Amino acid sequence: MATPIVMPKQGNTVESVIIVDWKKQIGDTVAIDDVLCEVETDKATMEVPSTVEG
User: Residue 12: what pLDDT?
Assistant: First the structure.
């Protein structure tokens, strides 16, 4: 079953991010705090952790 991923707020001036690398594949097991992907803003690259398991 698919679970929506909500992008955490990255600051007051960030309007968009680009996903630069997916860390999980379809069918992978995900634990809380597993890194799902890396995103890039105009100032930094950061990891997006899972907030749920499944």
Answer: 81
Q: What is the CATH number of the domain that holds 48?
A: 2.40.50.100
Confidence of residue 6 (pLDDT cuts 50, 70, 90): confident
Number of domains the chain contains = 1
Domain that holds residue 35: 1-54
Q: What is the pLDDT of residue 31?
A: 97
Structure tokens at 4: 């929506």
Find out whether 48 and 39 touch, Cβ atoms under 8 Å. Answer: yes
List Cα–Cα distances, 18 to 3, 12, 14, 27, 48, in angstroms: 20, 17, 11, 23, 12
The pTM score is 0.79
